[in-house]
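Hey,
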Amino acid sequence: MQETFFRESTLLTLEMRLFFAVVGLYILSCVLHLLQFWISSILPAVLSRVALPPLRSFAVGRVATQTLLLAVLAHTLLIILRGIEEGQPPVQNKYECLSWFAWCNTATYLFIRRRWAELTTPGIFVTMLSIAALFIAINKYSPVVTPLAPALQSPWYFWHVLIAFGAYAVFVVGCSVELSYVIIKALGVTRRTWEDYGLPSLEVETFHRLSYLLILMGFPLLTFGMISGAAWADAAWGRYWSWDPFEILSLITWTTFAMYLHTMSVPQWRPVWGSVFCLLGFSCMLVTFMGSGFLTKLFGLYSMHAY
């Protein structure tokens, strides 16, 4: 008994040290991404719009990406360590799900960057969201390993989490691209200076298509995630749908992204309403995953998804 306690406490201590190292690397990467954006956009405006050599901003962007890669590798080790500690996939509670959410976001962003190497500005929002998820995880939820809730003891649960977080990660990257575009467009940037902002040097329609393709990729994953969630709910509670607050928010998120995809199919609506529904769907997704617990407590609602 004493040996087991010593082993678990040692693993938890090692996990917490690695956790804070991961957070520190994410913060450093975020700061470097912000510095790259400042060098390539804000600083030239302050200096009477005298453009700096693109290499300088890209050099900072490369260091930011390399730092993020190191953070993801360390985060991968953290997840593996947690899995060894539990003896099962570490997605059993809110603490672990938030950590998995942060890892999925950054890993997906790095994968997308392999295709579009100049896509650095969206990294600001991806890293910020991952930092926020880890901050909530460590401050609101306990990292101590606890027995699995009876409702989660279903083979559907793992697949539901895996598919749903895959969809969330693609949405995070796609909406970060769209948010970067909206901000930079508001600054009045011309096509010739797209690359200085860490964005592809593309026409507006082509750039919108990049975000559209990412969300189009994530939408079937979200759909399958909801279907697997319904199957899990039927196995756990005896019914596929119970109008639970979390289920309603998930349906709202799905509907909003469906409206976005429809909007992007109408050429006259793409420039404005495409961005509106994209960012609205992103907001709904964040409320569904990270804010549903707060809303249920605020309005005194009962949720079967509260663990």
